[in-house]
Automatic annotation (TrEMBL):
CC per GO annotation: cytosol
A Pfam entry, by short name: ThiF
UniProt family annotation: Belongs to the HesA/MoeB/ThiF family.
Gene name tied to this protein: moeB
GO terms assigned for molecular function: nucleotidyltransferase activity; sulfotransferase activity; thiosulfate-cyanide sulfurtransferase activity; ubiquitin-like modifier activating enzyme activity
Protein name in UniProt: Molybdopterin-synthase adenylyltransferase MoeB
Length: 250
């Protein structure tokens, strides 16, 4: 049950018929793995911690650079050269001491991911690395864990919600391993609020999923054009030959 301090902290959630005490307890008992604590992971982790998600696994091996401060809202000049995972844990603990925060200051790959994904009810891909994205996708499908993928570059954002139990394609169906990352924030740039928008939507869909509120757009790639302020969506079909979600993978 919720404590008196939790009733006060989450009072605006409790007023919502769709959430209420039952939904808040679901958040309290949930565990979410966030891989990547940059421009996407910063706002996503802040809102999930503020919402009262019981356990947040915060995974990032990188250190904070001055160029990060344009869009990575968890950090400031006093955080420079420090480990993102550790600083994120410290900042989020101050935001909400009611939640458990686990800093994972190491690289994620297909071998190390399995144990962390197993601990989570939901995974957020907030990375900017194609190899890690493919490994996350494969691990989540192998363990049947839902995955929220975010991406942003220049004035463009993407959001993709994947549920291994549903009949839609996975990240591997959409982007094969032969596709290389030619453009990154480091060489192509990104406008800060676009990254924040996608990270916030990852947090929103996570809260909806964990509380059973509304409809999560499973299997639909959402594309955001910030310059025109337009959204487009397309369904991701399942590739029958996909080694991750196809017959061979399952």
């Amino acid at each position: 049950m919720l404590s008196d301090s939790e009733f006060m902290r989450y009072s605006r959630h409790l007023l919502l018929e769709e959430v209420g005490e039952e939904g808040q307890l679901k958040l309290k008992n949930a565990s979410v793995l966030i891989v990547g604590l940059g421009g996407l992971g910063s706002p996503a982790s802040q809102y999930l911690a503020a919402a009262g998600v019981g356990t947040l696994w915060l995974a990032d091996f990188d250190q904070i650079e001055v160029s990060n401060l344009q869009r990575q809202t968890l950090y400031d000049v006093d955080s420079l050269k420090m480990a993102k995972a550790e600083v994120a844990r410290e900042k989020l603990q101050k935001l909400n001491p009611e939640v458990e925060l686990v800093a994972v200051n190491q690289k994620m790959d297909e071998h190390s991911l399995a144990g962390f994904v197993a601990e989570a009810d939901l995974v957020l891909d907030c990375t900017d690395n194609m190899t890690v994205r493919q490994a996350l996708n494969a691990t989540c499908y192998a363990q049947g864990k839902p995955l929220l993928v975010g991406a942003a570059i220049r004035f463009e954002g993407q959001l993709l919600a994947l549920d291994p139990s549903r009949d839609h394609g996975c990240y591997r169906c959409l982007y094969g391993p032969e596709m290389e990352e030619r453009l990154t924030c480091s060489n192509a740039g990104v406008i800060g609020p676009v990254v924040g928008t996608i990270g916030l939507l990852q947090a929103l869909e996570a809260i909806k999923f964990l509380t059973g509120t509304g409809t999560v757009p499973w299997g639909e790639l959402k594309l955001f054009d910030a310059k025109a302020h337009r959204w487009h969506g397309l369904k991701v079909p399942k590739d029958p030959a996909c080694p991750v979600c196809g017959p061979k993978g399952s």
